[in-house]
Amino acid sequence: MTNFSRAVRRLALFLPAALLVPQPILAQEPAVPAPQFITPAGETPWIYEGSDVPRDEEWTFGELPNGLRYAVRKNGVPPDQVSVRVRIDAGSLHEEDSERGYAHLLEHLLFRESQYLKVGAAIPTWQRLGATFGSDTNAHTSPTETVFKLDLPNTNAAKLAESMKLLSGMVRSPVLSDTNVKAEVPIVLAEKRERGGASERAGNASREVLFAGQRLANRIPIGTEETLRAATGDSVSAFYKRWYRPENVVVVAAGDIDPVVLAAEIEKWFGDWQGDGPAVAAPDFGDPVAPAGADPANPVGEIGVIVEPDLPRSFTYTIMRPWRPVQDTVAYNEGLLRDALAQALINRRLESRARSGGSYLYAQVSQDDVSRSSDMTFVTFAPLTSDWKAALDDIRGVIADALATPPTQDEIDRELAEFEIVFKSQVEQRRVLPGPQLADDIVNAVDIREAVAAPETVLTVFNSMKQTLTPELVLEHTRALFTGDVIRAAYVTPATGEADEEAIRSALQETVAADTGSRLTGRAVSFEDLPAVGEPGQVTAQGPIGVLDIEKVEFANGVKAILWSNDAEPGRVAVKVRFGAGYRALHAEDAVYANLGSSALIGSGIGELGQEELDRLATGRKFGFDFETGDGAFTFYAQTREADLDEQLYLFAAKLAMPGWDPNPVIRAKAAGKLAYESYAASPGGILQRDLEYLLRDSDPRFQTPTPEMFDAATPEKFREVWEPLLKQGPVEVLVFGEFDKAATIETLRKTFGALPAREEPSAAVLNRGVDFPEAGETVVRHHRGDANQAAAVVAWPSGAGVDNLRESRHLEVLTSVFNNRLMDAMREHAGASYSPVVRSEWPSDVKSGGRIAALAQLRPEDVPVFFAEAERIAKELASEPVSQDEYDRVVEPLRQYVSRASTGNLFWLYQLEGSTVDARRVDMLRYLLADYTEVPPARLQALAQKYFGSRAGWHLAIIPQGQELATAANAGAAAASR
């Protein structure tokens, strides 16, 4: 795309030009013969067969004589990247009872060894090509498909050819030996173990109820321990031969290269592939069927009550219909839009009830075609108390009203405006849709057996549907959504005896009166009627910052703005507001209010406007209102568009100038926090989420996850007392990056942020308030109440913070990438761990302390000492000798490609420049960015390892099941650290 190319040229103005030159790693291959099987013009491509949906002309389709189908297109987002997807029409639903888990096991085995990749060579090979494993190179297995994914950066003809060769070898000719199966099964079992616990048990039990009698009831992709341990090379090969056949495969490629070249490579590497033996029809996935004797008017079937003491309450009931392939026509899609409108109307009413203090925390209605097994309408909610029936009755009353009476035209118009802004935004942003998303769109369409449509087509279909829409037609679709062959329900509760199957069955069979008070009424709210923030301020300084065409604007009240008006991303504007001192401004006793702020501060309103009025203001507009408390600042963030930018800036400024203090969002957030708290202890991952930040900050009370008792003690009045002065804090920095009129936006800033009263600057004591790192010593132990085979471990070292050594933080990213690769290899070798081991470097640039390097993994309890020992060993090795050139190249090339790709987008520059009005050195350090990631010599990495690892052992945390012999694990970990 020309705009992104222009952005890259701008980048070259201040980054070393040599670093932007594509790095040759492969010789050019001979020209590939022209593709022979592209669908000719005038003929219907395979994905549009039976459909009258207008063809998206940017896609080129083809079908090979062996049955393999493909789709390719030119796309320059990000520049020089090609995204490839290889989809196999086989997932866990295609497995026989003795094969459960084989589809997912094959996903692993294809990466392990294949025709062109030796054992263990896949990850380093893709890294040498510039692709990061886990993000650029990945795969997934679902009940209905297995998809291999590659996002290849800095692509040229040679790299594309090599990648297609490697992918074809993986898919066509994997090495499925007993040795490879035996080596990979423990890794899959480790992944299964990591997923286990209360949430997994509850999900599986719910699935068995909701899909009773169907294959989906007991065929989750991870499989069973019994079938996986019994797997052999022959048994896995039998599954592979049955389903890995060209007629079951779709290859998709979208990228910054001629689509004819993409098609030619696909035909070259997949064209002569032949299946082994005759094709086999897919199994019958089964239909949802009501039990004999069920009332046809209210066919309540299977009910499940799942007791999990560590999980919050959640209730799901479904109205189920058989899934059948459809003719994906314009009329069919108009019907889907009417269905979506009907759901949106009900969901808005349900949300309004929850906000005003209903009997449930949340409730939602949704329709989904699940795994080609059932067409389902879900009703999902979380009761606030043990009185699940009151919540169920309240929700069914709202639904009953929607089934009895057509919606008002005002309600319809409101939802149509919301839909329209989404579809118009997609049209505006079509030119910058990323290649990975486009490739995934084709894969998803194939999975659900439907076509694909360009954004313009979607908007056209929406407009045609809108012209024929009436309240009576919405009522008809609402009633269809709640009509089905069987109704099933699953209730997850922490309390034994709180409910039983018959009580739930009886409740669902009761006739519930329509809640006529659930309809939303209210006065129209207009921005023109809202009060001004204040007297427009004056611009006191304006000029370029020296990077690209970015400018800084300063106002008389001290507010500073950074603006970059560009057309690189049509239809998009990113806005970020930084104010105050973040966690530094909070006191030890404020932890619960810091937690509540993330979920209740925005919902508490602006001035006299509550959340409902703000929602009405947002109707037909693209707004955002994300809030976060950072180490050194509080932030608002939104993705909007030029047409709505003035109002977005007003909302942010008004939140600082005239905040509202509706107590209901605080009360609701308290309830949500209490319900979630006990679930943290259900797994090692939950304990990490609850305690790790708190522990790594030396148990600083500001970072504690609030307990139920803390939530109970919190009040809306105290919430206001804490947050009101924080919203008055400065400094204030506004960043606006995207497609907008700069002069007009500066004028809007004068009327909004420039009109704010002067901010209160934090004291020096606040600005210098830091956090400490815990002393290394005896292993810190936490317990979880999950499965006895689950544990987690962390080893961490303190590092740096602030802008002074910001370049060093980039060097640390390279070092931790090397550490990550080594730790993953070590844990797979010694403990059969999956891909969970990870090493991260955190370097907060807004503050002067709090940085750390942390290695963490989820594993078996008996492997915790192994993890401690391996992490400490690798740290010492990195400090004692430089990394090899190949190991260095394997991490540097993906980092080079990441920076090159990311720097073509506005968000990259926004994140790099935020905070630069407080510390201008951030701007100067941009010129070293790419070099810092790609030119740090191995000797420098060794020196960093000596600095951060060589002088001290790491701090250790073990999360182990209750009842474990903790002393053994703790002592072994400490001993490993001392060796």
Q: How many strand segments?
A: 23
From the spread of the alpha carbons, the general shape counts as globular
The separation of the N and C termini measures 55 Å
Structural class: alpha+beta
Named CATH topology of the largest domain: Cytochrome Bc1 Complex, Chain A, domain 1
CATH architecture grouping of the largest domain: 2-Layer Sandwich
Uncertain spans: 1-29, 969-979
Tally of individual helices: 33
User: Can you summarize the main beta sheet?
Assistant: 7 strands, mixed
**What proportion strand?**
15-25%
Structural domain count: 4
* Overall pLDDT confidence: 93
Q: Specify the helix fraction band.
A: 40-55%
What integer value in Å does the Rg equal? 29 Å
Task: Give the strand order of the largest sheet, numbering strands 1, 2, ... along the chain.
Answer: 12-13-14-18-15-17-16
| CATH superfamily placement of the largest domain | Metalloenzyme, LuxS/M16 peptidase-like
Q: Which CATH class of the largest domain?
A: Alpha Beta
Signal peptide: 1-27
Family: Belongs to the peptidase M16 family.
InterPro entries: Metalloenz_LuxS/M16, Pept_M16_N, Peptidase_M16, Peptidase_M16_C
Protein name: Insulinase family protein
